[in-house]
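Continuing the series of single-chain predictions for the mutant panel. This is the parent chain; the variants come on the following pages.
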Amino acid sequence: MSGYFRRYSRLVRLPRGRSLVRNTPYAGEGLRRAQRGAVHAVCGHFATSMAPALVAMPTGSGKTAVMTILAFELEAARVLVVAPSKVLREQLADEFRSLKVIRDREVFPPDRPLPKVAVLEHKADAQVWASLGDHDVVVGTINAVSPVLADVAAPPAGTFDLIIIDEGHHTAAPSYRALLDAFPDVPVVLFTATPFRRDRQHLPAELVFNYGLSQALAEGVLAPIDFVPIDVASQATPAQQDIALVEAARGLLATVEHTAAGTCVIARTSTIAHAEQLVERYREAGLEMGFISAGTSASEARAVLDRLRAGELAGLISVGVLGEGFDFPRLKIGVYHRRHASLPATLQFLGRIARVLPGGPRACLVAVREEVNDETRELYASDVAWAELVPALADAAVAAEGRRRSYVLNFDTTLSQPLSLSALRPSKNVQVFQLPEDSALDLRTPVAGIARGIVTDWGIDDEGRLAVFITQHLDRPDWIASDALDGIRPELHVVVLDKEKRLAFVYGTTDHTIGCLLRALGEERPLLVNPAWLDRVMAARTLYGYHAIGMRSTRGAGGRLAGYRQVSGTDVGRAVLPSEARSYGATHVNASVPGDIDEPGGARRSSLGIAYARGKVFSPTRLDLLAFRTWCDELADVMTASSIAAPAGLPGLDLPSPRLLEAFPAHPYLVTVDPLLLGQGIRVGDARTGAWYEIERLELLVDSHSAWALQLVGNIDGQPWWHGVLTTDGAVHSNDSNILVDVGAGEPVSPLAGVLQRTATSVFFADGASTIGGQVYRRRVDGYPDLQPQVVRSLGFDHVDIRAEAKNPRRGKITIKEYIVAWLARDPDVEFVIDDDRAGETADLVVIHRPDSRGIRRIWLYHLKFSSKPKPGRRLGDLYEVFGQAGRSARWLHAAQLARRLLDRLRTGSKVAHGDPDQVQQLLADMVAGCVAVDWGIAVVQPGLVAAAVNAKATIKVMVTELRELALQVDADFVVIGHE
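Parent structure:
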């Protein structure tokens, strides 16, 4: 093995150049301050650590000299140098062959022998590695040396004792990682001008030295850059833009200062086909350009560069190469025919034209100023001073990378190799929980497992505010019963705790595992964040429009009303109809919002979503742990900011969003069983007596109410049968666990209280509010349109005692029921009227029409109510009970169930008030057999209500509209019949 660098290491000295004080231009021999600093930092690092070292220095600040010096200072026997491209491979090989820079700078004596350097132009197999025994330096691209690639052999152990990687920001790639894994005990030094990646992947090294771009410019190591914007018409074609850019470059080259300095152009595009077109466009403008791409052979690239140095070419066109490390100071004009979208790639390209050319002109970057959608867009804004902005952006990005690395270094961890906290990237997707004042949640609590997963790795930051849990779960396909295909599935959970605001933000795989984790950390009853606070999150952002909206029925599902709907597309907020806003409430939304420049990709637009039932805030971006904690802190500030008023709903969307039910509204008039439980043969029964009934016979009423609880009673045939309490958190309590529900299909029976809680029983209130579980949906009372005449009808009620519903009218008057039966009998379409007015009624009157032209019968359920006063008006008290009866009767709108019920009722006291009783019996039997097609209607008769007053009194209009919507949900018409 060669020992060249060890043998001559004692001859190396680090003489100081003149650039010892900031703002003093470099002149004379010796090393720049940054070069000396980098050498000392790397050597100091390896005195105590074998972790890879990362050196951040701007392009053109002397990285190559530092590389060659380190080979001596670290006393390497053989050095492997990895270059990012073929062109830079040749450039680095030439420097190590000649040691020209360090000899010129008097670092190394000029009279000593030079190292023997090998260049790997092809993939290294075992024979190639064996042939390098007498070489001091081996230079190759990663495609030639990484053992993870096909046809590349792993280098024998001990082949190298120092690895230097140029443009080290690539080392997050698997090919680089495989190379480093092959040499676990060898010092590795990464060099880059951009120690961060656009995708924020972790660079597997410790940042030991950072020389900022601002400092390099201030010390004269690099030259500032001017932006030359080309403004083209918005309708200009790409070809027209190219012509404008070529003309601008030609004009700059023709200026006195550029002509005198012999400067050249470097033009960048993204495809070989486009580059070939550009060669012709520049030639047409009188400029001969060379072309180099990643596919250009080493010999062809050398020939092009030789022509450039000889002055035979005006410049180079590059595709995928020359953006990194290439050293040719006369390149002073950069032309972006296709710009880089990321800041790291842009800074690398700018480094090609920022090298100091003594006596030369300032560098220029020529590009079309256009609407951009990437993280470099700030550079292309109007009136930007690039000399100030470029170094500011570069240094800020490097500083941010330093903060990320510093943050995770202070974690208390039990991470196993090869995991790194820097590499973790949770997405902006969290469940948010509100903590009680006495919460015992402590992120330092030991957690052994989460939801059948074993915690294998754990970490917490030094403030105890962010904790990471990595678990392993058995993963078995659901279509196999054996363990033949068992695997291990890792899962990540991240918790951010804000004790001051009493909020916890949790990223995890499922709601179940998140709940298990919080309980393991000491929070026994995690409560989701107030939905109004989620609306604040949306209200605090600029929304370009909604592209996904989820809606749930606020009346329960059934008939024409789906229990859940989702609409998606461009700006679908406009697609939500007013009628839907009365029947549905928002469950989740996803909106287009401005993107963040500092996010990976830096898109001009991003998306932001919330989900109420899960307390979630989500966005597709993935963040490092520090950025993730910062994002959660920003959410906490927005959610609790007194300056952001909790909006009535989502901004720009006429759809109610839920609110925590803190107190019940006044005047509950209707409690409904989930319509999905009806018409399915589901039964309720008493375990003590063995009596079972169709669930349709269960009638729920509010017995009494307070702000915090509704006392419910469940009647069977008008008799109290079950009592329970519905509280504001959506829980249903009952001391009677003997009342059971049997859903059939072999499922076990369940207590009625539990079924009502699981199906989120709905309650309707006179002010238009409705509650489902522990949430309330409120609607604008003034947002309801006027009801049409076919919904609100009037009758004269001549000779009717409007205070007598079915009996004991005043002398000379008739009852309301007598009047309505006579009125119906005069209608030739009405064939039968069944009087079911007694305890457990389906309705006071069941009205059956003759078949229409389609053979369909319409059946109406009429609910009658007397007036509390002798004169009609618009009294709410006259409406609550009858409106509740009408709403509850919707449970009977199933032909077979209603017919069976009526047959039983006719046998036990109900009667036919109009029509032939025998024909009624036959018709009902046919309905039980499924032989009758039926349309439905529900009618409320209240002669104490002036029909014309319905639209005039908002509360009445709201209740009528709600009942009509509820009827339409089950394909039924609805009318209210009042007094003229």
